[in-house]
Amino acid sequence: MTLNQPYLNRFRATSAAMAQRIHLIAAARPNFMKVAPLWHALEAAPGFTPVLVHTGQHYDVNMSDAFFADLGLPEPGFHLGVGSGSHAEQTGGVMIAYEKVALEDRPDWIIVVGDVNSTAACAMVGGKLSIPVVHLEAGLRSRDRTMPEELNRLVTDVLADVLWTPSPDADENLLAEGIPAGRISRVGNIMLDSFELVRPAIEAADVAGELGLERGSYGVVTLHRPSNVDDPAQLVRLVDALVEAQRRLPLVFPVHPRTAKGLAGALFDSRLARAGVRLVEPLPYVRFMSLVTGAAAAITDSGGIQEETTYLGIPCLTLRENTERPVTISEGTNRLVTPETLLLEIERALTGPRPVRCPELWDGKTAARCVEDLRRRSAVAKLPVAEAGELAARYAGGERRRAGGESYRRS
Ligand code: UD1
Fold it and tell me: How far is the CA of 30 from the centre of ligand 1 (A)?
């Protein structure tokens, strides 16, 4: 796999800082795209030693290994092998396993990303061991507490010492919840850095062609949220809607393992296949993005795809009642739809004008901003408390925190 060298060279100029050992927590498919650009940026920046910790929440080759290969990530420094289970089993399993690693390896910082169970679990471990925790993709809120991810977001943000946000709405959410401004840095959307990191490979691939489809003539479907695929009544509404939509727009549906179980249990997979929907295994990142870049529209319940389609200017129809990423609606290509309105919205997406806006700082340069912020905050953490307080007060809202598990105080 060749990575985009001009993209990587951007980090070489980063100035030296005191050596900081950073645990980057990778866990599940959407997290690999958030961790990869940051790992490369930290690895190239003097003064940082990034260590990948894979909790093993996603473990299939298609859901994990293929992403490491595509994104040029090395073997993890630690693999916790936690695997599947109930929410409590998965969260508890990650906490028990990661606590041992954190105690043994004693990082200066723990960086958690996104909103999966492993994110909240590792934030909790860091908080209890007084190791500073950074949350990348902080502040997103769907305000729907029936979503497991919303609970993970709330827990993680309340524990994190540094909150890296993608958009102004996220800053506002955190401030409204009483998080001090000094802990928040708006860095932009890291997912798009991953796209730029491997753009040449994405552009060279032709997954649509392999499936006998012309670019711009098909839709990509992904579904995996429990509220959509674990509830048989909702799943049947979705399958009906996709069968109907297929008549208007040929659909390719890479099926998540959670969804595959639900579809197979009700024989919906054969119904979709008979209708002409192309059901395929989950795709590695480069192949999936090749498919998305050639799509006329995406139909999804994924958070990441709402963002990627906004960046690429491709209409996105989100089969959910809410989104924690409202900026993809107000400044992007996203629309919330129901199974009943899907067909109408597909028609509108195919025939209507396409917005070409993109939110500020969604520019493929987020990893560089993260490294710079961490360098600044690490420098403050290494200073004597009085000096650190002065410096921190200048640019970080007066908050003091010392890295490496030393004592700290917040003002
Ligand atoms: C998880 C995240 C969700 C994220 C999604 C992306 C939580 C609560 N949810 O949902 O935020 O958007 O990942 O995919 O953390 N399975 C496999 N192989 C795998 C992984 C999972 O077969 O590699 C099966 C397991 O049987 C598992 C089920 O899929 O029980 C669901 O996996 P899980 O990690 O619980 O949640 P996701 O639905 O993937």
Answer: 10
